[in-house]
Amino acid sequence: MPTEMLSLIYDEGQHKRFRAGGLAHEWRERYPMLFDNQDLKIALYRPSYHFFEWLTAIILYESMGWLSLVEQYEFKSHRTKQAKLTALVSHGGMSQDMLKLILKHEDYGNTQCPDLLVFAPDYSQWFFCEAKGPRDSFSENQLKFFKELETTSDSQLRVVRFKHNPQKS
After folding, report:
1. How many CB atoms lie within 10 A of CB 56?
2. What does the angle CA 39 – CA 26 – CA 35 come to, to the nearest 5 degrees?
3. What's the rounded Cα separation, in Å, for the pair 3 and 138?
4. pLDDT above 70 covers what percent of the chain?
5. pLDDT digits (tens, 9 = 90+) for 141-158
6. Residues whose CB falls within 8 Å of the CB of residue 54, separated by 6 or more in sequence, listed in order
7. Where are the domains of the chain?
8. What is the pLDDT of residues 59-83, one digit of tens each?
C-alpha cells in the first residue's frame, strides 16, 4: 500500500496560474532539470491536470536535491526520460526487472506508472511518488499495479497529498 510521505497545503492562486499556462512556462524555465519541452507541451495541452505532479517534483528537488521524471516516462516517445531510465539501470540504482515492468504493464489496464520517478542525481537511489490533489483517489487498477511495483522494487511507493488552504476557502 502506498505510504504517505507528505501532506501539504497548496496555493489556489498558483493552481489558477498553472491552468492558465503562465506558471508552467515559468517552472519550465526555472527547473530545466525537471521539465523539458515535451512536459510543457503536455501540461499546456491539458491545463487542468499536471499541477500537483509538477509542484511535487519541485518540492522534492528543493527539499532533497533529487530529480524527477514527471509522468509518461514509460512511453518510448519520451526519449529524454527513456535515457534517464536506462541510466538508472546502468548505474545500478534500478534492476532490469523493474525497468521491464515500467515499460510493459498492460495487465493493469490503461494504468500509467506513478506520477513521478524520483532519483538521486548520481542515479544510485530512486523511488516512485504519486501526487494526489484534494479530490484525487487511487483506482483499483492503480493499487494493483503499484503493489506489483512495490514488490518488484522492494520499496514503498510514496504519496504526496495536497489540501486546500482552509483559511482561503
Report:
1. 27
2. 25
3. 13
4. 97
5. 999 999 999 999 988 899
6. 18, 24, 27, 34, 35, 39, 43, 70
7. 3-163
8. 999 999 999 999 999 999 999 999 9
Q: Collapsing DSSP states into helix, strand and coil, what is residue 116?
A: strand
Pairing of strands 116-119, 158-163: unpaired
Host H or E run for residue 43: helix 37-45
Residues 6+ apart with CB under 8 A from 24: 18, 40, 43, 44, 47, 50, 54
Q: Could you write out the DSSP letters of every residue in 59-106?
A: HHHHHH--EEEES-TTSTT-HHHHHHHHHHHHTTSS-HHHHHHHH--G
pTM score, whole prediction: 0.93
Q: Distance (Å, rounded) from C-alpha 34 to C-alpha 27? A: 9
State how far the alpha carbon of 56 is from the alpha carbons of 101, 117, 137, 144, 151, in Å.
24, 11, 16, 23, 24
